[in-house]
């Protein structure tokens, strides 16, 4: 393995995070492009609320619901977990575990090729318009300078890789679900790639690709990504939450905010009322479609 089990700064065992990072790197390595002009430098971008307004996995869930992949009750439950996570601004261990189990239940037994196809369709339908042009311009500047540009996210690696490919980036490190004989088993490889897991993945990638982390860049909106931001010589807070903004100011890090041109429902941490109305609207639309179908068969 590329990563060795070790203890984090708070004494917590990060072996599971290392396992997830290792699996993510294996997936990413298969799609890595040719060597860059500046092989020692890379840029690492978080996805949700950094590269994209809102949460990519929630857009994906809405797209699956529109395809009758699961019912409105499932979407409402998943949406509420998303709301509480975004409003709290930090991962609760129990909440993360519940969200992970719910997401895995949706894909257990499904073919990877099917999910990848849905990822491609739903990105084009729902996510492309959510990309922050300012953040994408930063990524393009790195590419133009000969740097590799990686997404590093808790989003499933299949979806993260498609986002990276659509944006013309180098690749993605993301959460990896276990696959046997081309189908998802309903289990993860390690834990979701967030917090210490992101830092572990970036560190491992740097070792493998012989990157000089002091010459690298990292971009995120969340205080939860402080471990990843602290690894590199050029950390940047993008659309930061209050805690990260305070930490960035204290450390003298660059702060950029691309949210000002967007409506409140599409930026940063959405209001509970706004997401509640959204989830309710989706549920109502699905109920109306079912009623129409039942009427048509009478």
Topology:
Elements: H1 15-30, E1 42-45, H2 56-66, H3 72-88, H4 93-107, H5 112-127, H6 133-144, E2 148-156, H7 157-167, E3 171-175, E4 177-180, E5 183-188, H8 196-209, E6 217-220, H9 226-231, E7 234-238, H10 242-251, E8 254-256, H11 272-297
Parallel strand pairs: 1-2, 1-6, 2-3, 6-7, 7-8
Antiparallel strand pairs: 4-5
Helix pairs in contact: 1-8, 2-3, 2-5, 3-4, 3-11, 5-7
Overview of the molecule:
With 298 residues, this protein is of the alpha/beta class. It has one domain (15-297): Rossmann fold, CATH 3.40.50. 52% of the residues lie in helices and 13% in strands. The chain has 11 helices and 8 strands. The strands form 2 sheets. It has a 6-stranded parallel sheet with strand order 3-2-1-6-7-8, with helices on both faces. Strands 4-5 form a two-stranded antiparallel ribbon. α9 links the parallel β6 and β7. α2 (56-66) packs across α5 (112-127). The longest helix is centred in the last third of the chain and has 26 residues, at 272-297. It is globular and about 45 Å long. The chain starts with 14 loop residues before the first helix and ends with a helix. Residues 1-13, 85-91 and 263-298 have low confidence and may be disordered.
Quick recap:
This protein is of the alpha/beta class and 298 residues long. Helices cover 52% and strands 13% of the residues.
